[in-house]
Amino acid sequence: MDGLTWLAYVGVIFALIIFPGPVALLCTSHGLKFGRQRAMATVLGGVLASLVLMTISSLGLGAILAASETAFYVLKMLGGAYLVYLGVKAWLETTAVATQSSARADDYRAPIGTLFSRGFIVGISNPKDLLFFAALFPNFIDVSEPQLLQFVILALTWLVVDTTLMSIYAGLGSGVSRWFQSPGRVKLFNRATGSLFMVAGGSLIASNR
Question: Which residue ranges does UniProt annotate as crossing the membrane (predicted)?
């Protein structure tokens, strides 16, 4: 893989990742509620999900999923249902954003493992991402060179860009947390993010291949 191909790949994935999706929304939400440091667990969960999807796609399972209507349908329904569940949960949530004085209580309510698992589940819940990686990587791989090394380079590049951008989203959420000390604003934020999650989940469920 030459330098120009790699730079083109970086440009493509930067444009793809920076557009806010469910994982970016979750990172922003967790950054607002729990602070940037704790939201990094959400970021890492989403990044691990991407790595798993990349590996599965590289093994050819993405093609199997593309050929299996039943498997694709089941995974799509599960992924969409989980996003809708997160949306309903956000709508019903009344907890105020953490302040320094209430940090211990919020830490108890949101263990690092929970934030990590939410990031991972949201990241891996869309089976279309398997097909996405299966379609993306071949465009940047030179078949005349060792393919494993190229895959590792593409995967590591994705992980670095993904981690950086999702960390920025978490930081943005944390940065505006002071503005959301008002219970009314917190409720409005929860309703807005909940609605977006439900729309994303409903769109996934209703979408065709």
Answer: 6-27, 39-65, 71-92, 148-168, 188-206
Which residue type occupies 149? L
Residue 59 per-residue DSSP state: T
Q: Is the C-alpha dihedral spanning 46, 52, 56, 58 positive or negative? A: positive
Kindly state the DSSP code that residue 97 receives in the 8-state scheme: P
Helix (H, G, I), strand (E, B) or coil at 123: helix
Torsion on CA atoms 27, 33, 39, 43, rounded to nearest 10: -10
**What pLDDT is attached to residue 176?**
67
Question: How much is the pTM?
Answer: 0.69
- The torsion of the CA quartet 121, 147, 157, 196, rounded to 10 degrees, works out to -30
Tokens standing for residue 144: 């005349």
Does residue 107 have a pLDDT over 50? Answer: no
The encoded tokens of residue 21 equal 């999706």
Burial 25-46 (b: 16+ CB within 10 A, else e): bbbbbbbbbbbbebbbbbbbbb
Where is 32: in which H helix or E strand?
A: helix 22-34
Tell me the residue type at 146: P
